[in-house]
Structure formats: structure tokens, C-alpha cells
Specification:
Helix content: 25-40%
Largest sheet: 8 strands, mixed
Number of strands: 8
Number of helices: 11
Number of domains: 1
Distance between the termini: 37 Å
Strand content: 5-15%
Order of helices and strands: HHHHEHEHEHHEHEHHEEE
Structural class: alpha/beta
Radius of gyration: 18 Å
CATH architecture: 3-Layer(aba) Sandwich
Shape: globular
CATH class: Alpha Beta
């Protein structure tokens, strides 16, 4: 990351902020090697790693997928991005990747976590082409029709919507409804980028341990068929829906850190599937 994070005093004043309670965004930050986390988050990450030894590897692969997906979409000329459930800023960020091909790309980061929003506004909203919106993905109708997004993103033009590593924190029906609402509103030529935790024979036996690591945040793993259904009739970009650890990487670019990723020697328990879809004309 670049710049300064939100001031600790500002974070401490946020209603509901509790550093003693593990938080999914901060657990993910720790797995990625970030510094915006607390002891409770690190303890939760350690508990997660006992159940899923490859959790950090998959987290890094997931971030590498996000960067590759954005560069792919930007390479097709898309200049508008809505990152839903964006999480804590972690390089490379969406606008940094998009601007390698589209220098005036506009990015709206959306999250319902007040701490995430505070950090994002301090780190990311540094010019008129980046905005941070405090909104829950489940409140998709208000998000899509609201003035904050409407004044910044033109949904009548192609846009890229990203739901990366966040849909498994929603009940299945609510996740399906949110993604479907975006699919319906997005113009032809738009792109949908998704990664989501998948239920497999390898991770089902440790499901209770995984749930315990996240406390009261209920996790909803999806079957491969359910993940495919999230794309509706969008045309999938090759290689389709595959584990993030198998997704082919592009080059990071001269101003970005390398997208280093270790491919597991055997199928990982921490399975996350990812894909890119394009809305047909």
C-alpha cells in the first residue's frame, strides 16, 4: 500500500469497532502479509490455518487473480469498475491495475465495514476517479439506484463488477440476488469477476473449524454448479471457472509488485473457484 492508513484515533471512534473480535477483512489482510490487523485476527488466521494449511497460499492466489482479471478487462477497454466487498486496501489495488491500460479508469470501492471504509478513503480515494461507498452488498437496490454510484458510474455503458472473495460471507439466496441485480443492470459488453469459496470433499470435514475461526460470521460454501450459476448467461472467459491457484497469471507490470504465487503440490483444502464473464451484446 502507499500513503498513510486512517489514523488509529479515527478508527477507535468508529461505532462497533472491537479489536478483540476477529474480522474477515483483517484476517484476509494478515493472510496477505498486511499490517492492518490485530491479535484477535492473527489468532483467528492461525486457527484457520490449522484447518486449511494452504489458506495463506489461496489468499495470495486470489489477490493475484483479482489483479489479472482487472488487467484483462482493462485491456478490453473497460474504464469503469465497481469492487463490491472490496476489503482493506492491498496492493495491487483495482484502480492501479486498471490504469495500466486505461489511465482514466474510474473505480468505486464498496464495503459495509466502517473500518475498511475509513482505510479506503484515506488510502485509495486520492483523486476524482476513485470513490469509496459505504454500503452493504445485500442492499444492492439502494446501491445500484443510489446517487453515490449513479453520479460516478454510468451503468448504461460497459462496466466491470467484482465480487472477489466475499460472496461466501452472505447467505446463498442473498448472494445470488445481489449478483443477479448487477447482471441485469450492467450494459452489454460488461464484465463480471467472481471468486468464492467452494464446498469440496476435502474441506467439508473441517467446516466447523473454519466456521470457528470466523466467529459469528456464517460462511456459505458453494458447489461448482452454484458458482457457475452466478454468471447467468454471461459468456465465460477461458479457462472458465477454475481454482484461483490454477488461474493463469499475466505480468505484473513495471510499477506493480510481482504476482508471486506458489501452486500447491496437491489439491488444497482451501478451495476457491474464480471466473470472468462477459455480458453478450
Amino acid at each position: 500500500m502507499t500513503g498513510d492508513t486512517a489514523e488509529p484515533e479515527e478508527i477507535a471512534r468508529i461505532e462497533g469497532f472491537d479489536p478483540g473480535r476477529p474480522n474477515p477483512a483483517r484476517i484476509y489482510d494478515y493472510l496477505l502479509g498486511g499490517k492492518d490487523n490485530f491479535a484477535a485476527d492473527r489468532d483467528a488466521a492461525a486457527e484457520l490455518a490449522r484447518a486449511l494449511p494452504d489458506a495463506a497460499l489461496v489468499a495470495r492466489a486470489n489477490r493475484a487473480f483479482l489483479a489479472t482479471a482487472v488487467r484483462y478487462v482493462a485491456g478490453r477497454g473497460i474504464g469503469q469498475y465497481v469492487d463490491v466487498g472490496a476489503g482493506l486496501p492491498t496492493r495491487p489495488n483495482v484502480h492501479e491495475c486498471a490504469r495500466q491500460s486505461v489511465p482514466d479508469a474510474r473505480v468505486a470501492y464498496v464495503d459495509n465495514d466502517a473500518v475498511v471504509v475509513a482505510h479506503a478513503r484515506a488510502l485509495l480515494a486520492t483523486d476524482d476517479l476513485v470513490t469509496v461507498i459505504s454500503k452493504d452488498a445485500r442492499d444492492y437496490a439502494a446501491l445500484l439506484s443510489g446517487p453515490e454510484l449513479g453520479a460516478f458510474i454510468d451503468l448504461l455503458q460497459p462496466v466491470c463488477a467484482l465480487f472477489v472473495s466475499m460472496l461466501h460471507f452472505l447467505p446463498a439466496a442473498e448472494a445470488d440476488a445481489a449478483v443477479a441485480a448487477f447482471r441485469e443492470r450492467m450494459a452489454p459488453g460488461s464484465y463480471l469477476v467472481i471468486s468464492v469459496g467452494a464446498n469440496t470433499e476435502r474441506n467439508v470435514p473441517v467446516r466447523d473449524q473454519i466456521q470457528s475461526a470466523y466467529g459469528d460470521r456464517v460462511l456459505t460454501g458453494r458447489s461448482p454448479a452454484e458458482i457457475a450459476a452466478l454468471f447467468g448467461d454471461f459468456e465465460l472467459v477461458p479457462p472458465g471457472i477454475v481454482p484461483v491457484t490454477d488461474w493463469p497469471l499475466d505480468s505484473a507490470g513495471p510499477s506493480q509488485p510481482p504476482l508471486l504465487r506458489q501452486v500447491p503440490s496437491e489439491p488444497t483444502k482451501a478451495r476457491m473457484l474464480a471466473g470472468i464473464g462477459r455480458k453478450r451484446a
